[in-house]
Amino acid sequence: MVDTMALLPAFLRPTRTTRRASYPATLPQGGFEAVLDVPDDLLSPALVAAGRGEYGAASALLATTRAAGQWEDRDRYTRGLAAFARSRPEWFDAWRAAAPADPDAALVAAQLAVDRAWPSPARAELLREVSPLITAAARADDRDPVPWRIALDHARGSRAGHRYFEELWEAAIRRAPHHYGCHVAALRYLATFWHGSHRECFDFADLAAQDAPAGSLVQALPARAAFGYLTDDCGPEVPRERLDAAADRAVSLSARFPSATPGPAPMRNKLLYVLVRLGRWEDARAQLGLIGPYATSFPWDRFSDDPLGQFLRLRDGLLGPTPPAFPAGLVRTPPRPLDGHRGRAAAADH
């Protein structure tokens, strides 16, 4: 029999054991509205200024994150600014023209180029053409891991070989050993090129989480692996205990952040999906309280063209007067069978 692990990238190592914990559930106050993909209090003014054609606020925001080494914020703001520039490019074109050597503008340019190429059927070919922009962003500030996260995404989209990917990965973690975006990029690469290798994805995610500080977003990486498993009807079964342990790590991390704020909303929305799929209703209600009004497009756009409506239907079902049932529309294929504990099992168990 072929040793599957021998065929997988070198960034995988054997997993370690984890401990599970339980957390009290709190219900959100009823009646609040929900909003989709709201930027935080620092990104929002930069986007408002960009809407007026001004790039100064965006430049200052990214310069601050670079000077302070706030790499998670820098990554998130880069994505948000690049997304805005896709539909409103004038302010960004002016920025590039005025400051062609600006490392922050170079970073947004690299992200924007990857974003523009990604939806195309000719993605791999188009992505190869934007490699110089990523190289320029990486050379602009050697400390910054965000260009390397972009490079990791680029390698996946251009179907680069795993040896090249490993070189990028090693360069990324030398700069920031616990950068969440780079870890997510590696997890996605593994899931894409070794489709169905969910246990190996968990091995990678568990080890990364165990090595990361308690407040690092990498603590949510196993839950990201669980999300991949629960939305992919392929590969060997992952034990229920491992899925619960992954959710527990993310629940603990979520509790460290302030409630009802936009920053942790992406992590909390993905965790909510995992908890619902595991039938952990009380924990799911607790996450709704922490999410507050801040819905995010992902993961709900995986299951509906109306992600906000999908979130609201799920919220109404969890907070309704009757015991929750598995919400319709949250899977494209029948749910994997799960052993029910910590609440009712998914509907497909019956």
Could you explain how this protein is built, in words?
The protein is mainly α. It folds into two domains: 40-193, Serine Threonine Protein Phosphatase 5, Tetratricopeptide repeat; 201-350, no CATH class. The protein is built from 17 helices and two strands. The chain has helices at 43-51, 56-68, 71-87, 90-98, 103-117, 123-129, 131-140, 146-157, 162-175, 180-193, 198-211, 221-230, 240-254, 265-277, 281-291, 297-300, 307-319, and strands at residues 35-36, 294-295. α1 runs parallel beside α3 (71-87), α8 runs antiparallel to α9 (162-175) and α12 (221-230) packs across α13 (240-254). It starts with 34 loop residues before the first strand and ends in a 31-residue tail after the last helix.
Tell me the number of structural domains.
Answer: 2
Helix share, percent: 55-70%
Strand segment tally? 2
Which class of secondary structure composition applies to the elements? mainly alpha
CATH topology label of the largest domain: Serine Threonine Protein Phosphatase 5, Tetratricopeptide repeat
Q: Briefly, what CATH class of the largest domain?
A: Mainly Alpha
Helix count equals: 17
Which H/E pattern describes the elements? Answer: EHHHHHHHHHHHHHHHEHH
Give the rounded overall mean pLDDT.
88
Largest sheet: 2 strands, parallel
Strand content: under 5%
What is the end-to-end distance?
Answer: 36 Å
Low-confidence stretches: 1-31, 340-350
How do the strands line up in the largest sheet? 1-2
CATH architecture of the largest domain: Alpha Horseshoe
Integer-rounded radius of gyration: 20 Å
- Tertiary shape: globular
